[in-house]
Amino acid sequence: STWGTSVKFEHSQSVMRGLDRAIALATQNTANLSGIELNDTNLVDLAPKLKAAHIAHLDLGYCSLSHSRIKLLLPHLPSLELKTLLLTGNTLGDRGAAHIGAILKQTSIEKLSLESNGISSAGLKALAEGLRDSSVRNLNLWGNRIDDVGIASLCDHLPYTRILTLNLDCNKITIQGATQLLKLIPNTNVSDISLHGFADTSEALTAAANNNRAIKKWPFFLLGTHKRVGIASPIRVLNEDILTVMWRYL
């Protein structure tokens, strides 16, 4: 109806005014648009505004971005010269991850957050192919649906990436997937890896590390309880119910 069209138009205009204000208030080339619900029209209009404002760090968290909506913005990324792209809390799913993976090598993005986007191992496989030889150094995949199959796909490409910091907290990774990943780390650029929220216990991971020479010769932290475990010094465990592996080079 005409009334419905008018309401949609007014909402779109209101959102654009909010975007204009947020971009105008941007400091240090950073635009925080988190929480602004973006529709197709907004996304088409957004890229030229970001380019004109020389935005290098962009937060689009919780902006109701689906795989089809993010696809409208992605072709513009190579010309925007973004260093940071935060897409936390959207609904990109596997297709969205694949769209991003397909464009990554053409961008200058160094920090990428896809936290809480419903990405499974299929999506990670497509993303990992794009991470290879990309500029990404900090990758956040917290709170998705990635399992050991996805970790195997990531391992195929991780040595050929520039990733330094990797967050895989709160996924569906088991001790087998974690062990496979940790064995590979010495052959990558990764210096900080977080694996939080295992179904397996810290004792199981400790045992696996003790039986693996490649892991034992690197220092890392197991955060889960208050007891000290004597492998690959130093190891700390702060809360028995929550397992985090923080890997750091000496």
Write the layout of secondary structure elements.
Elements: H1 2-24, E1 30-32, H2 40-52, E2 57-59, H3 67-73, H4 77-80, E3 84-86, H5 93-103, E4 111-113, H6 121-131, E5 138-140, H7 148-157, E6 165-167, H8 175-184, E7 192-194, H9 202-210, H10 213-216, E8 220-223, E9 227-228, E10 236-237, E11 244-247
Parallel strand pairs: 1-2, 2-3, 3-4, 4-5, 5-6, 6-7
Antiparallel strand pairs: 8-11, 9-10
Helix pairs in contact: 1-2, 2-3, 3-5, 5-6, 6-7, 7-8
Briefly say what this structure is:
With 250 residues, the chain is of the alpha/beta class. The chain is 41% helix and 13% strand.
Total strands: 11
Q: Supply Rg.
A: 20 Å
Order of helices and strands: HEHEHHEHEHEHEHEHHEEEE
Largest sheet: 7 strands, parallel
For the biggest β-sheet, the strand order reads 1-2-3-4-5-6-7
Helix proportion range: 40-55%
Measured distance between first and last alpha carbons: 65 Å
Strand content: 5-15%
**Class based on secondary structure composition and strand pairing:** alpha/beta
Rounded mean pLDDT is 77
User: How many helices does DSSP assign?
Assistant: 10
Question: What sort of overall outline do the alpha carbons produce when their principal axes are compared?
Answer: globular
Parts with pLDDT < 50 across at least 5 consecutive residues: 1-11, 213-250
